[in-house]
């Protein structure tokens, strides 16, 4: 099962595990300072890489979490 969400570019967004993936996004990214990087792969397909840095277990150790957004 895939959840399809309309996107501004009229291409559906597919989530392989919508419940788990949306929870993960809400927990680690939503409302938190994070960076988004936009690029194109070798086939010129666009992608966005979202990166957030947190303190792993409050031990002053940076922990990077990323989400790769692609059309397929």
Give a quick set of tags describing it.
three-stranded antiparallel β-sheet, disordered N terminus, two-stranded antiparallel sheet, alpha+beta, 72 residues
Q: Can you offer a commentary on this structure?
A:
The protein has one helix spanning 18-28, and strands spanning 3-5, 13-15, 35-40, 46-55, 62-70. It has one domain (3-70). Mean pLDDT is 78; it is low at 1-10. The two termini are 15 Å apart. It has one helix and five strands. The strands form two sheets. The chain has a three-stranded antiparallel beta sheet, with no helix packed on it. It has a two-stranded antiparallel sheet with strand order 1-2. With 72 residues, it is α+β, with helices and mostly antiparallel strands.
Strand line-up in the sheet with most strands: 3-4-5
Average of per-residue pLDDT values: 78
Shape type: globular
Rg, alpha carbons = 14 Å
**Element pattern in H and E:** EEHEEE
Strand % is 35-45%
InterPro entries: Rap/Ran-GAP_sf, Rap1_Ran_GAP
GO molecular function: GTPase activator activity
GO biological process, one term: regulation of small GTPase mediated signal transduction
Task: Briefly say what this structure is.
One of its GO terms (biological process) is regulation of small GTPase mediated signal transduction. One of its GO terms (molecular function) is GTPase activator activity. The chain is an alpha+beta fold and 72 residues long.
């Amino acid at each position: 099962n895939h959840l399809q969400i309309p996107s501004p570019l009229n291409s559906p967004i597919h989530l392989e595990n919508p419940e788990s993936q949306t929870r993960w996004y809400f927990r680690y990214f939503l409302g938190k300072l994070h960076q988004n990087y936009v690029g194109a792969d070798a086939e010129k397909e666009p992608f966005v890489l979202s990166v957030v840095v947190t303190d792993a277990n409050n031990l002053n150790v940076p922990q990077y979490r990323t989400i790769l957004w692609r059309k397929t």
